Amino acid sequence: MSDTITYRVPGMHCGHCKAAVEQEIAGVARVESVEVDMETKLVTVCGEALDDEAIRTAIAEAGYEAD
């Protein structure tokens, strides 16, 4: 069964921001999909036994902070 975690990433403003966040999170173990909604600044991550800390680190690696 897949888990879903949603993060608010208010620093994202453009397509480059979206691509950077998606790319970093996609590299985290057990992540199956990443959806970024630029309007709401929400990032939804789906996968098996997701590691919250690893995903937050990936967001930070992309240059953003998750609320």
Q: How can the largest sheet be summarized? A: 3 strands, antiparallel
Could you estimate the helical fraction of the residues in percent?
25-40%
How many β-strand stretches? 3
Domain unit count: 1
The class by helix and strand makeup works out as alpha+beta
Count of alpha and pi helical runs: 2
Compute the average pLDDT. Answer: 96
CATH architecture: 2-Layer Sandwich
Could you tell me the radius of gyration in angstroms?
Answer: 11 Å
User: What proportion strand?
Assistant: 25-35%
- Provide the CATH topology: Alpha-Beta Plaits
CATH class: Alpha Beta
**What is the approximate shape?**
globular
Strand order of the largest sheet: 1-3-2
Distance separating the two termini: 25 Å
Uncertain segments: none
Along the chain, the helix and strand elements come as: EHEEH
Explain this structure to me?
The structure is a single chain. This protein is α+β, with helices and mostly antiparallel strands and 67 residues long. It has a single domain, classed as 2-Layer Sandwich (Alpha-Beta Plaits), CATH 3.30.70.100. The chain contains two helices and three strands, in the order βαββα. Strands 1-3-2 form a three-stranded antiparallel sheet, covered by helices on one side. A hairpin with a 4-residue loop joins strand 2 and strand 3. The termini are far apart.
SSE blueprint and pairings:
Layout: E1 3-8, H1 15-26, E2 31-37, E3 42-47, H2 52-61
Antiparallel strand pairs: 1-3, 2-3
Quick summary:
The chain is of the alpha+beta class and about 70 residues long. The chain contains two helices and three strands.
